[in-house]
Amino acid sequence: METVSTNRTHGGTQGVYRHQSAETGTEMTFSVFVPDHAPGAKLPVVWYLSGLTCTHANVTEKGEFRAACAQHGVIFIAPDTSPRGDDVPDDEAYDFGKGAGFYVDATQEPWAANFRMRAYIERELPALVDAQFPVDTGRQGITGHSMGGHGALTIALRNPGIFRSVSAFSPIVSPLNCPWGDKALTGYIGADRAAWREYDACALIEDGARLPDLLIDQGTADSFLEGQLRTQLLAEACEKAGQPATIRMQEGYDHSYYFISTFMSDHIAWHASRLKA
Predict the structure, then answer these.
(1) Is residue 72 annotated as part of the catalytic site, yes or no?
(2) Count of domains in the chain?
(3) Whole domain around residue 206: which residue ranges?
(4) How do residues 186-211 score in pLDDT, each as one tens digit?
(5) Which of 9, 81, 122, 202 is placed for a possible disulfide with 174 were both Cys, Cβ 3.0 to 4.6 Å?
């Protein structure tokens, strides 16, 4: 693992790191904020998965999470959204290819060799982080935005017992029922829609997967709400299944980091309360 940069901030260290990934076959970059702590202490961790077009840098620079993480003693980890590099296949559109990994393991060519973000987030990066940082793997939470909200929900639903807290900002709740999801899953996974269900939060809940609890914040002025995010589908799936969920429609907020940063401290506090030893 190579250290790209470290900065002292908010009573902790914000670092950016790079490593060679076996899953994606590329170099991958991620950021980690570690609050000051007693020698030998292990801290709870919140994973943050970013949205379309983003890298680790968007939330690291604009998310305004550090003060809350320092207050509550929580490590904050932000991976990239897809593999990068000149040899990695890409698409001209913003919603497919680089910057749009959708947190799936692709099975279709030419994407299958590199686009393995599910395995990278579920297995490879956690193992690296556990070896290099003072994380308590028994106290993990996960959150994300938009495509990353989809990733956070589906990863948590597929891995019961790993994440004690789960939240999301403006998540894509049902790729089976929106244009972004239709394009991404057809391209990465293929035309068999039955194979998509493990990448759809609503379908996973319908099929019996459960979370200990769930917090969603969604802006009412989000231009993607009706066509792509479809928050109501998640509300209906949770109600039907008896899945505990707090879904907050935030009046006048859009899809941007102005929205995310406004409610980030709420989410960190919410995770911290569930990650106490």
Answers:
(1) no
(2) 1
(3) 2-274
(4) 999 999 999 999 999 999 999 999 99
(5) 202
